[in-house]
User: Fold these one by one.
Assistant:
Number 1:
Amino acid sequence: MTLEQIKDTSEGPKGSGLSRKVLGGLLVGAFGLGSAMVGGSAAYAAPATELMPGHKIVSWGSAGDGQRELPDDLKVKATKILTGGYRHGAALTVDGDVLVWGDNRHGVKKLPEDLANGKKAVGLVSGHSHLLAKAEDGRVYSWGADDYKQQTNFPNALKGDTGAKARIISTGEEYSMVVTEDNQFS
C-alpha cells in the first residue's frame, strides 16, 4: 500500500476541525510536516498550527520528573509541534530547533549530534522513551531508549547521508515507522 492510498474516512467531533485517515486498516492522523501518529483506534489530529511567542502552553498531570517544567525557549520561540512520552515532553520550533525536557534516564534529552549542532528538523514524534526527528533533507534521527531495539535495529537503508529520505515518521510506544520518499515502509 502506498501513501497515495490514504483516504479520509470521517471528520472528528463536530466543529473540532479534526479528521482521521485510514491506511490499510490503520488509522493515521497527520501532525504537522512529515510526522504522523498511527494506531489501531480512532486517531484524530488537529490541523497543523503554529503557536507564536506569548501563547500559553498548558501542561497537567504527573510532574515528578520535570515533564511539566516547560523550557524558557517555549516562551519566546514559535512552536510547530508539541509531543510527549512517558516522562518527557518535546517541541519543534518553527525555526527547526528540537527542545526536550523532563526525565532523561533513557537519554531523550541528549539530541543526536547533527541536531545538537544546528541541523534543522521539520518533523518530530515521540514514543514512550524515544524520539524521531525528520531533518529538512529527509534524514531521520532516532534517540532515547533502546530496550526494545529502537536504536539498535534502526534500518540500514535510512542511515547516513546517502540513506533513504523520509516522507512520514511515526512512533508507537516502543517502536518506530517511516514512509520513505519512494513510498516504502521501514
Note: The domain at 49-180 is CATH 2.130.10.30 (Methylamine Dehydrogenase; Chain H).
Number 2:
Amino acid sequence: MVSLKIKPVRKVGEQWVGQGKNQRKSEFVGCKRDFWGDLYSALSSSGISRTKPKPLEQVCMILGITLLYVGAVLFINGIWLLGKISNQEVSIINILVGLLSFIIALHLIFKDPSNTVDISAGAFTLLFSITYLWIGVNQWLKTNGRGLGWFCLFVSITASLIGVHSISGYATSFKLWNTANWFAWSLLWLSFFYLLALAKPIQRPVAIYTIFCAIFSGWIPGVTILLGIIST
C-alpha cells in the first residue's frame, strides 16, 4: 500500500482570529504544495512514475504515424483522380498531411544533430511533404500542375536511388518491404510526372496504382506498426 502523509489544514477558529486574508491564503497554498510533494514522493517510491519511451520505440511510432496518414492521403488522392471528389475538398487532407509530415521531418532533422540516420530520414520525408502541400495548393488554385510534375520526377529519381542503396542493407522482412516501398513510390511519382508535366492520358491507371500504394505501402504497415504487430 502507498501511504501519503498530508499535512492537515488549520481549522477556521481561534488560531485565525485577527489574521488577514493574505496569511490565510499562504497557509492554504503551503498545504497544497505539501500535498503534491508528498504524492509525488509516494508514487516515486512505489515505482509508479513516468518513464520515457526508448528512442527506437519513438522512431517506430513516428514511422507508423507517418505511414498511416500517407496511406490516407494517397487513398483520397486516388479517389480524387477517379473523379469522385472535388478539388477544394481533397485539398484539405493534402495540406493537413503535408503539414504533419513537414513537422515530423523537421523534428527528425533538428532533434539530434549527431544522428545522421534521422537527419537523412527527415530530408527524404520533406520530399513527400512538399509534394502533398504543393498538390493541396494546386487543387485550391486550380492550376495545371506542370511544375509539380517536374518536381515529382526529381522525387522519383531520388526514391529509386534510395531503393537501390537500401538493397544491400536489409536483414529483416520489414527492411525488405521498406526497400520495395521506395521502388513503388518511385514508380508512383514517375507516373505523376507523366500525368502532370507531360499531360499523358493515364489518369485512371495512375488513380488505381495510387490507391494500391496507399493500402500496401502506407495504411497497412502504418496500422501494424502502431499496434505493435510488426517492428522495424
Note: The longest helix spans residues 55-81.
Number 3:
Amino acid sequence: MCSKESLTTLLELIMIFISGNMSAPEFEENYLNAWRNYRDFDSIDEVDENTQKYVDRIFTTLDAYCHNPELRDESDLDDAKLLSEVIKLYNNWQSNNL
C-alpha cells in the first residue's frame, strides 16, 4: 500500500469512529496498525504539514487511551474522552488550526 492509500485509510478510520460506526477499542487497534503502515513509507513527506500533524496527534491521543477500565488511571482517556479528543482534533484539522 502506498503512502497516499495509507493516509486515506487513516482518514477513513477517523471518520468511521467519529460517526459512531466503530467502537473505541476497534478504532485503537485499526488506527495503530494503519498508522504503522503509513509511517513506514518514504513518501510521507508529500503530505501537507497540517494533515501530518493531525494523523500524528490522533496517534498520540490513542497513546493516552486505555480501553480497560480496570487498568485505566486518572490520566488515561476512556472511550468517551477519546471520541471527544478525536472530534476536537478533526475540527482543528478542518479549520487548518493544528
Note: The CA atoms of residues 6 and 37 lie 7 Å apart.
Number 4:
Amino acid sequence: MEQYKIIYLHFKSLSLKIDYYLNSWVFQTLSGLCRAKGPLGALAGQALEAARSIFGNGARMNVLVYPHSMEIGGSQLNAVQIAGAVRDRGHQVIVVSERGPLVARVAALGLEHIEIPRDRARPSPHVIRLLRDVVKRRAVDVVHGHEWPPIVEGFLGAGLLGNAALVGTVMSMSVVSFLPRSSPLTVGTEMIRSAATRAGYQSVTLLEPPVDTLADNPSVDGYAFRIGHGIAPNDILGVMVCRLVPDLKLEGLLSACSAAGQMAFNGAPFRLMIIGDGPAKGQVVARANEVNVAAGRKIIELAGEMPDPRPGYAAADIVIGQGGSALRGMAFGKPLIVIGEEGFSELLTPESAPTFLRQGWYGLGSGSRGAGVAALHAALEATVPSSAYRRSLGLFGRTLVEERFSLINAAQKMEETYLLAMRNKPSVGQRLIDGARSVHLLTGYKLHRRFQRWIGTASRDDSNARGRISTILASGQIGGTTRNS
C-alpha cells in the first residue's frame, strides 16, 4: 500500500509542476508580447488581463524585494523563492541585495537584480537613498524587506514619506521592538505571531517557511551523490544541511556527530553527511575526526557548501535538521529528526507534529526521549533498523508539506498581504509618529550593542540566542535585540 502512495505522490508532484509552469509560461509569454507594437501588443494586453483574472487577483503590482543577506540560508532563500513565485502570478518584481551565492538563483529565475554594497552600516543611509530613488523611478507599489535592517531601511527610504507600501518578513525566532508597528509583518510561527500582536504590531500574518514542493520532491535522484561519496547501498545515510554557525546550529551538529559515533559503536550501518559551511566548521571537523578515528573508518563526512543541496536531500535515508532545512527534508519524503538546543531532539511523527506546527521546527530542552546525545541516539535507533517505518514517516512528512507549506500557497498569501498593505497605508501623521518611535528605539539598541561589544558580551545573532527563544516559547514576549547590527 505504501508503494502505491509513493507512486501517487510522484504523479501528483508532476501534475503540480505542469500546472505551475504552464501558468508561469502564460504570464511570461503574454508580458513579452505586450511590448509589441500594433494589434498584437493590444491583443496580448487583453489576454494578459484575462489571465490575471483567472490565475491571480487581477491587480498587477510593482514589488521591490530586499533580502537581508545572500548567503545560502533559510530566510534569504525563502525571500528569493517567494519573489519568483509572486512574479509568476503576473507581477513585476525587482530584487535589491548585496552580492552572494543566492544572486545566481535570482538570475536563474529571470528576476532583475540591483546590487548594494556588502560592507555597509545597518541601517545604511546609502541604501535608504537608493531605495527612495528606485521606488520613485520604477513606480514601485510595495517594498518588501526581509529581517530588520531591510525593513527599517525600506520604511525610512520609501514607506515614511513615499507612496509605496511597506511589508516586512521576520523568519528569525523573535521580532525586535523597533520595527514600524503600522506596517504589515509576516512571521514564521504562530507563537511569534501571537507575541508580536501582543507587543503592539497592528497587522501580523503567519507565513510559515515555504517549500518549493515542485523542485523538492521524492522523484529527485540521489544515487550519484551516494556513489560520489562512497555511501554503500546498505548504509543508512543521515543528512544535515545547514550553516555551520555557533547560534542555533552548533550544538545540534556536535550532538549528531556524537550520536553517529554511538551508532557505529553499536554496529549499526549508519553514516552522517553534513552539507554546509561557516565559522564553526573547525569545531565540527574536530568532532567528526574524533568519531571517525574511534570507529576506525569514515562515519561522518563534511561535504562543504552546495549551492543546490537537493542531491544531498535526495540521497538521505534520514534528515536531521531544523527550520527550513527540516521542511525541505520532508518535501523529499524523508523521515525527520528535529534538533534544537539545550539537548532538544524529536522525531517527527503524527503525534509530535502539532508541537512543531505551533512553535516552529526547533525546540529547547527535553523531548519525548529525553535530552542530549542519548535522546538523538534513541531517535536514530528507532528509525535506522526499519525501512518500512522510514517510508511511513517520510510519506507523512511529504503530505504535511504539500498541504501546508507549499511555495504556491505562500506566494498567494504574500500577494494578498501586498494588496492589503497598499489598500490600508497609514496616514503620513501615523507614519511620522511610527518613524520617530522606531528611530528612538533603534538608537537605544545600537548604543546597547556598542556597550556589549566593549565589555565583550555581544552575541553575533541575539534574536536567535537561547534566552530570547526561551522567552518566546515560554511566554510569547518579544522586543529586544537581533542580528545584523
Note: Residues 52-58, 476-485 have pLDDT under 50 and may be disordered.
